[in-house]
Amino acid sequence: MPLSPEQRSWLEALRSGDYRQAKGHLRHQDTYCCLGVACDVSGISDREAPEGNAPNRTSARTPGRHSR
To answer: Distance (Å, rounded) from C-alpha 61 to C-alpha 55?
Structure first.
């Protein structure tokens, strides 16, 4: 089954080396888990993430590095 454009963007971002790997959090400081990268690529902010998955809720979110 072919990948959707969104999936291709996510995979490209994961392979780019632009994201340092994190575990246990979508995003923490300048590190991301694979799903955190998906949120960043799709434009979902930390504040929109499910409670408990984005520990850095008080800081302003910087725009995603990869735009659709």
So the answer is: 12
Q: Locate the domains of the chain by residue range.
A: 5-48
- Record the pTM: 0.65
Where do we find the tokens 């969104």? 6
Nearest partner of 66 among 1, 12, 2, judged by Cα: 12
pLDDT tens profile 19-68: 999 988 888 888 999 999 999 999 987 666 555 454 443 333 444 555 44
DSSP assignment of the chain: -PPPHHHHHHHHHHHHS-SEE-SSSSEETTEE-HHHHHHHHHT--GGGSPTTS-S-TTSPPPPPSS--
Crossing angle of helices 5-16 and 34-42, rounded to 10°: 120
